[in-house]
Structure prediction request, 71 residues.
Amino acid sequence: MIVCSCNVLSDHDVRSAVEAEQTRSTSRVYGCLGCSAQCGRCARTVRRIMDEALGSAHAASCNGRARSSEP
Ligand code: FES
Prediction:
């Protein structure tokens, strides 16, 4: 699914960049994909995909145990 129409980036593109860069910086994700944020409409969606990707990477690094979302 296309998540950034300005740069024609898919959710898969964002996940791949996050996994390659292991970063919490949206600008580094755009940079890794050879572009930069334009209108900013996709920022929240890109951030959510990043959080999910980094969350699953963290869970995998903790012997596959899922993190609890409970406080
Ligand atoms: S939709 Fe991503 S910068 Fe515009």
Notes: The pocket of FE2/S2 (inorganic) cluster is lined by residues 4-7, 37-42 (CB under 6 Å). The chain has a mean pLDDT of 85. The chain has one domain: 2-61. The first strand starts at residue 2 and ends at 4.
